[in-house]
Each structure stands twice: as C-alpha cells, then as structure tokens.
Amino acid sequence: MKLKNTLFFLSVLFVFTAFGQIKSDSVLIEKKHKEVSISATKSSKSLDVVPIPGSIIGKKEITETAATKLDEVIEKQTGIIIVPTKIGTKGVQMQGLDASYTAILLDGCPMIGRSFGTLDLNRISLADIEKIEIIRGASSSLYGSNALGGVINLISKNQVKDGKNMFLGMKYGTNNSLNSSALYQYKKGGLQLSNSI
Question: Span of the secretion signal (predicted)?
Fold first, then answer.
C-alpha cells in the first residue's frame, strides 16, 4: 500500500513537472507609454532617467481635480504638505522640510517675492499653468539652498499665434464659492508676455 502511494505521488509529480517544461505559445504584449520629459533638472530628460523621484501633473490632471487654486492641485501629490505661514499665506513642505526649503520655479526661473522664506502660492493663477513638474529630494546643487526639499516647476501656457490673446474663466463651487481668473498674453516674434489675475 505504501509503495502504491509513493508511486502515485511520484507519477503525479513527474506529470506536473513535464507540463511545466512545455513551451507556451502565449504572446508577450508590450504597451508603450507616452514618453514624458521633465525639465526641472535644467535639462529635458525622460522621467524614467531622472536620478531622484519626480512626477508631472499635466493639463488633463489639473482639470480633473476641479481645483480653483494651485495649492489644491499640489497638495494631492504624495509627500507634499501645504502649510499655513506666519502671515496667513500657504507654503509647500516637501520631504519633511520647512516650506522655505522648496524652490518654486516658473518656466525654469526661480520666483521671487518670498515672505518669511515662503512663496505665497495664491500669487500664481491656475489659469496660466499648462503643467506642473515636481522633483522630490535635494536639488540644491542646481537651484541653491532653498531647493533642499525639492523643486516645483510651473510651466505656463504657450501662445501659438502672434498678437493678443485673452482668456476669462469663472468657476462656481460648493458653499457659494466663486473663483474668477483672467489671462492676457501678447506675442510678437520671439517675445511673449503673459499676465494673469
């Protein structure tokens, strides 16, 4: 009886091992993702080869959040905390560091006008932003000591035609909240001016 059980067990084991060695005709399907480049490293690189963690919030994602302010879009990202400052504005904390250690750029240029070391996010109209690039981690070698926590690069909308453009927007939300925005752009040759409120 014991011999029969052992033989049965070994035959079942060999059968399954044999099936494990059969070559399958299944096809490996590769899905190509849209290549995304990030320019907050002072050079346009694919997000896959950037040496520190980063993310990109595109125009579609900004619209889907139904946010009315820039801080509402940014605070939904992992590892980012929006904190109130001493003067009532809002700052961005990254990597657990204070808001004064987060560099905020507009089209790759550092934004000026910090109060108590923090740039007020309410100064930046969401109507003028095409995409947001976020680099988490120390970037002080590229952007100075205020980029120890990370970098947020705001890419503004590009005007394609020469001349003047004006965009007006209004959003109505819960609790009777109303948010209006206006964007004025002027382009002539290589010169582009943009102002938003």
Answer: none
Contact 151, 134 (CB under 8 A): yes
Q: Are 173 and 72 in contact (CB under 8 A)?
A: no
- Residue 18 tokens read as 């044999």
In whole angstroms, what separates CA 186 from the centre of its chain?
Answer: 27
189 shares its domain with 151: no
133 plus 83 within the same structural domain: yes
d(CA 102, CA 151): 6
| 153 and 163, same domain (yes or no) | no
Cα–Cα distance between 92 and 69 in angstroms, integer? 13
Average pLDDT, the chain: 74
**79 and 174 in one domain?**
no
Write out the E strands in the chain.
37-38, 45-46, 54-57, 80-84, 90-94, 102-106, 109-110, 129-136, 150-156, 163-172, 178-188, 191-196
Q: Which long-range contacts (CB under 8 A, 24 or more apart) does 77-81 make?
A: 77/134, 79/136, 80/134
% the chain with pLDDT above 70: 71
Q: Parallel, antiparallel, or unpaired for β 109-110 and 102-106?
A: antiparallel
Residues of the chain where predicted confidence (pLDDT) is lower than 50: 20-22, 24-33, 35
Longest dimension (CA), the chain: 95
